[in-house]
Design brief:
CATH superfamily of the largest domain: Beta Polymerase, domain 2
Radius of gyration: 31 Å
Distance between the termini: 62 Å
Strand content: 5-15%
CATH architecture of the largest domain: 2-Layer Sandwich
Shape: globular
CATH topology of the largest domain: Beta Polymerase, domain 2
Length: about 750
């Protein structure tokens, strides 16, 4: 696409610029595919300069499915299956339609993302042509090379081709042949196992096993007999407990786990993952024809899965390549004029004029200034006022006609302008904490002291708004230097003690910007955790921070960092983290975004506390609900209800004999959150996901054309019998036994005559 555009630039003939722009965005998945090139971006930029409209792209990219596309989706789901080819998971879908329906590429990509396979293929006959669509998000797969013999078009992650003289069956056979011959083999257990394996003899004393643990740093050993056959596993935890009970001379066989779970050397990584997760074990011995040849730990799997390429939701929201870090200057006026919308510029100027006239000193502070310097969009305007912020905000409210909400005890106020834009005001203050995690006592002060009370240096940046000093840059604590270095740094050593919620904010900012914790800050954070400062923090305050974390676009990355730092176990007692839970969290990120785009459920973030809660002991739920950001009984009851029913619903939807009517009966009473939770909690379960998507896309809104008046005309007496007949007709329509209004009336008449 970009090559063609470049060849046409000199001719100036891009009258279809919007369509070209849409093509680039669709082919590159909105410029996020790993195969996106600088040339794609340059072509998109050139099209925008020529008058291309992103609004048109947005209208088409996010458009809801048309009825024909829903039919196509249903047909694809009905024939979808996952096949293993060369140790890879391949989602294969087929359909046949009488007329052409657009959007096959988008549907294939969405189903690929929902099923989390290596590769998705759609073979669809429409009119007199057979269409092949292939999509993959795996960085090690090049679909152009893979399907080169078919002369496909596209790029490494997305290809397409249309065939006129080839049947769907023949194309499927050819595609499968190519996959078996050319699809790079997925890795197996033997590729990632550690070898040779350190073992311990069954008669060895516990003290010897303990010495080996300390020497090699392992978390456990396979136990072997005289024939070198694996007869058990002994873990670090069991060995250390035995040592504490003075059992150092007891033989290892007395305290080993005897039911050894093993993996074959040729098992796929998916199979190894299932073995470790389903059995909740930290390591699995690898056997070759019954002989011990290696061992795989959870760490080995995580390194392999995430080492080469990390899922986008596991990455920082931004990276250094997204920043346009401005050079420091004594005055930021030029930066304000070049990077902020005129509407915001006007508000800042008005603030400065009122402050100058009435003798206030007013500053823009915090994240607004930080992101202005980074070149990132952030129009959450925070204003610090030396003197009385509420008094100043009232003057601005009078000048603009906005609505003011003031909090006298804290010296803060929020002004909502007539167009809905909000400005937060705070009196410049310093804070005093009477004890760790206490609510602070505040005292009016200067802007420098106000900035010193903040959480991290990157949030201490400010600029003056008064007309006489407009744009004057304030950086008392080297916040700009830390922006350059990509560091999260606290301002003083007791920062995490006085406000332990800053531990959660440090994680949020580090993952959002791709920054790292400064060395001393990391030490102070670890010390605060060791001193159990989070336990001293009111649950409501922790809940506010976690709620904000769950609303970030990259929650899997946040939770991963929180787990690695040891924060999650202190927030959710007894939480059992597993690779399966990690996959569910990643799936939840995709499903939450999907539900938002499709206007299905605005609170998709509730999936995260729900998935975490279900992995905690039932008795710990009550104390965890508020800490997980769930406000009020309504949210808490909803999440608990879904968490309790999730396993039962998942099992029920796996029934091979379940009809569409049965799917409707199961899912119709459920809240929308339960439907999304089913998708998130069962990644890779094709039958279950097909059932849920069928319900969401078709069954939930399926109505019959007849009503009670029609039944009265058939001679049915008014009463409960009318409702029963209508329900039976609706069930028949769900199961596809009636289609038209005439068929519905005929069925209703037959039911009436048969005495229903």
């Amino acid at each position: 696409m970009s090559v063609f555009i470049n060849s046409q630039q000199k001719q100036g003939c891009l009258k279809r610029g919007d369509r070209f722009l849409l093509g680039i965005y669709e082919d590159t998945h909105c410029l996020t595919n790993l195969s996106t090139t600088p040339r794609d971006m340059l072509a998109a930029a050139w099209l925008l300069e020529q008058g291309g409209r992103l609004s048109q792209v947005s209208d088409y990219i996010n458009i809801r499915l048309a009825p024909q596309q829903r039919d196509l989706l249903e047909a694809l789901l009905g024939e979808a299956r996952i096949e293993a080819v060369n140790e890879r998971s391949v989602l294969i879908m087929a359909a046949s339609l009488e007329q052409f329906v657009s959007g096959l590429g988008v549907l294939t990509l969405h189903l690929l993302e929902l099923e989390d396979c290596d590769l998705a293929l759609s073979i669809v006959k429409m009119e007199n042509q057979v269409h092949l669509i292939a999509r993959s998000r795996r960085s090690d797969l090049n679909l152009l090379d893979l399907f080169a013999p078919l002369e496909v078009r596209g790029h490494r992650g997305a290809v397409t081709m249309t065939f006129k003289n080839l049947s769907p069956a023949a194309l499927y056979a050819r595609v499968m042949e190519l996959l078996r011959q050319r699809l790079p083999k997925g890795q197996v257990a033997g590729d990632i196992m550690s070898a040779p394996v350190k073992t311990v003899f069954e008669e060895a004393p516990i003290a010897e096993a303990h010495r080996l643990l300390l020497r090699y740093g392992h978390t456990g050993f396979p136990v072997v007999n005289q024939l070198q056959a694996v007869i058990g596993i002994v873990s670090r935890r069991d060995i250390e407990k035995a040592m504490r009970h003075n059992l150092g001379q007891a033989p290892v066989r007395n305290y080993m786990t005897r039911n050894v779970v093993t993996a074959d050397v040729l098992a796929s990584l998916g199979e190894v993952t299932r073995i470790i997760v389903q059995n909740n074990i930290g390591r699995v011995p690898v056997l070759d024809r019954g002989r011990l040849v290696g061992i795989i730990t959870r760490s080995d799997l995580l390194k392999q899965i995430y080492g080469a390429g990390v899922a986008s939701s596991h990455k920082s929201l931004f990276s250094s390549g997204d920043y346009r870090l401005a050079k420091p200057a004594a005055n930021l006026t030029d930066l304000i004029n070049s990077r902020l919308p005129q509407r915001i510029q006007g508000i800042l100027m008005l603030l400065g004029q009122i402050a100058q006239q009435d003798g206030f000193m007013v500053y823009a502070v915090g994240g607004f200034v930080r992101d202005l310097l980074l070149g990132l969009p952030n129009f959450d305007l925070d204003i610090a006022v030396e003197d009385n912020a509420i008094k100043f905000a009232r003057k601005l409210a009078a000048a603009t006609g906005g609505k003011l909400v003031a909090h006298e005890e804290m010296g803060t106020a929020t002004l909502t302008l007539t167009d809905g834009f909000q400005i937060d005001f705070a009196t410049a203050r310093t804070e005093f904490y009477q004890f760790p995690a206490a609510t602070p006592e505040v005292e009016q002060t200067t802007i420098k002291h106000d900035l010193y009370r903040r959480d991290f240096t990157i949030n201490t940046l400010a600029f003056a708004l008064n007309s006489s000093r407009f744009g004057e840059f304030l950086d008392f604590f080297s916040g700009y230097k830390d922006l350059q270095a990509g560091l999260i740094r606290v301002l003083y050593n007791l920062s995490f003690v006085e406000d332990p919620t800053r531990i959660l904010r440090a994680i949020r900012f580090a993952c959002r910007y791709g920054f790292r914790l400064e060395e001393d800050t990391r030490i102070l954070l670890d010390r605060a955790l060791a001193d159990d400062m989070l336990a001293k923090t009111p649950a409501a305050r922790l809940g506010r921070e976690l709620r904000q974390m769950f609303m970030e676009p990259n929650v899997p990355a946040l939770l991963k960092m929180a787990r690695e730092l040891g924060v999650l176990p202190r927030l959710i007692p007894g939480l059992e983290w597993s690779r399966e839970l990690e996959r569910q969290i990643i799936a939840a990120a995709r499903i939450s975004q999907w539900s938002k785009e499709q206007s299905i459920f605005p609170q998709g973030w509730l999936l995260y506390p729900l998935l975490l809660l279900k992995e905690a002991p039932r008795e710990a739920w009550a104390e965890s609900l508020e800490q997980l950001g769930l406000r009020g009984s309504k949210e808490q009851q909803l999440v608990c209800q879904v968490a309790e029913e999730l396993e039962h619903l998942s099992r029920a939807l796996q029934n091979e004999d379940l009809s569409p009517g049965g799917i409707f009966d199961l899912l119709q009473p459920q809240p929308t959150l339960a439907l999304l939770a089913l998708l998130a909690a069962n990644p890779g379960e094709a039958r279950l996901r097909s059932a849920v998507l069928l319900y969401l896309e078709k069954l939930a809104d399926l109505e019959i054309a007849i009503d009670g008046n029609d039944l009265l005309r058939l001679g049915v007496e008014a009463g409960p019998r009318i409702g029963r007949i209508l329900k039976a007709v609706h069930r028949a329509k769900l199961d596809g036994r009636v289609q038209t209004q005439e068929e519905e009336l005929a069925l209703a008449d037959r039911l009436h005559k048969e005495g229903e």
